[in-house]
Amino acid sequence: MNTIKVAAIQLGEVPESPEGQLDAKKINKDLLYGTPEQKKSAISTIASINTESIRSFNFSRMEKLLKQASGSKPDLVVFPELSLTSFFPYLWIEDKKVLSRFFETDNRWRNKIYKLAQKYGVSIAFGYTAYAGNRGKNVFELVTPETEKIQYRYEKVHIPGHEKPEPNETTFQFEKKYFAPGDSYPVWTIPFKDRKTARVGMIVCHDRRYNAPYLMMGLKNVQILLNGFNTPFNFVAQDTLDKHVYEFHYLPLQAQAITEGIFIISVARAGTIFGHRQIAGSCIISPYGTFLAKTEHPGEAVITAELNLDWCREVKAQKYYGDRSRPEVLKAELDAYLQNGNNAAVDRILSKLDSF
Question: Do 292 and 331 have their domain in common?
């Protein structure tokens, strides 16, 4: 039986200051609409955030939980989006020097995670920010015990959120301001222990709301899709969806797992981050759309599963046998959209949806 053992490690809250949690909504309100004194105080609060302390805290939790997960002898361990810094785009940060502290400008912390992969003999996937010019990239990377250099790296394609504050709003996330989008959906053959391999792809958070990543990676015979995410309750323009938040989270993943015949490992940051309560909901889903493991625990959690890659072949056979996938039809449809200028209209629609 061709099996891969995996662990999904859900990370919890981060003490963003010596006093504990910071409230992004209050900070943004003071910064954008407050008195000069309130604005000055908000700027000072943001500037005082010790990002190295946050990284150190997160890494210590990653190491402890990885040690706990190692008892199940996993081949692959997956951490959330922005594992090292937590989700700082909840804050409006104008000072470029302050903002740059949240980006990985060297490989120090990434190399620490590589050393963990070596120590425990396990491949590790995790999210972080890569700095590039005026904006960075929201990155998901997989390191193996044997490969120190960056080899398996995905850059988030679908960037949600705001580029600038909206009038009279204080609840934001500013990914569009801080991150430039990636432009590809790569799939790699990843080597694991005992000469096992699997076709692995990655997405990040908002990417999971779109069909394209699953379709394109499905055409590349992906077997395991990794997703790190940060998703809050009570976000701007989404309050009415709160009662459906887990359906909106789980059902698309289950449907795409069935459609493409893949395992999906979706891993959350839980707890409260910069004043925003996260939904958690880490899960491991089979190609049959069933949950092999999941947790809605609001804090740290480790879930594990054994993935039988033969299930991918069984489910994919319903779609990809012979020439039934018809990618030439998809290409013709997309070409027609581009030639007719419809891509601009589609972009406008998507930009409005992204702002939610």
Answer: no
